[in-house]
Amino acid sequence: MSHPPESAQPRRRGRVAVWGRRTVLGALLVASLVLGGTAFRVWQVALVDQRHSADMIVVLGAAQYNGDPSPVLRGRLEHALELYRDGRSEHIVTVGGNQRGDNYTEAQASRIWLVEHGVPERDVFEAEFGSDTLRSIRAVSELAGRHDWESALIVSDPWHSWRCRTMAEDQGLRAMVSPTRSGPTGEVRTAYILREAAAMLFYRVMHSSADITGYGLD
After folding, report:
1. At a CB cut-off of 8 Å and minimum separation 6, what does 72 contact?
2. pTM, whole model, 2 decimals?
3. Per-residue pLDDT of the chain (218 residues; tens, 9 = 90+)
């Protein structure tokens, strides 16, 4: 049985190494293109305001401090209040659970704020479950099912719009988004868009939340 000459073995190892590097570089290029395309879509949807009539306005939760909404949550509530006063829906659904030791859930703090600002109590509904976006959307879907509501106008931060709308549609809701116009700018904004893109890709593949915490990203 003949064996290849010893001089051929280094050449073969060299070719294997070259193809290995090309494979790695190709995979990195594809991953970069996918992430970049997803980030572009996140940015694109963030510019859209679909403030059409719906069965409910959904305010996604954010931090609250002993019943006092954080600036991020207050921005969402002010936007939802504007939509309500414009007649976009007769119902507002507040969303979000609480951390250990909290006296209020995010949903409760939001409801209190809305009632204090003139929304009748009968028009505000709480979905108090949800420590991340997907669990929150599922809680909203369950509440909608109990009231025979089919459409939702979702209020969150701009970079969060595409993922929460996609999740709501996957739960069978006719979902629209009306994002606030607050949020990070410059390099910080770029970082959040990339993080949101990564969270969206994770959801697409795993059908679960990436639990990426931050400015409305979970």
Report:
1. 62, 63, 157, 182, 215, 216
2. 0.81
3. 555 555 556 666 666 565 666 666 655 566 666 677 888 889 888 998 999 999 999 999 888 998 899 999 999 999 999 999 999 999 999 998 877 767 889 999 999 999 999 999 999 999 877 678 899 999 999 999 999 999 999 999 999 999 999 999 999 999 999 999 876 656 677 888 989 999 999 998 887 776 543 444 45
- Residue 5 is encoded by which pair of tokens? 């000459």
**Maximum pairwise Cα distance, the chain:** 91
Token readout for 120 is 């009748």
Residues with Cβ within 8 Å of 197's Cβ and at least 6 positions away in sequence, in order, are 35, 38, 39, 41, 42
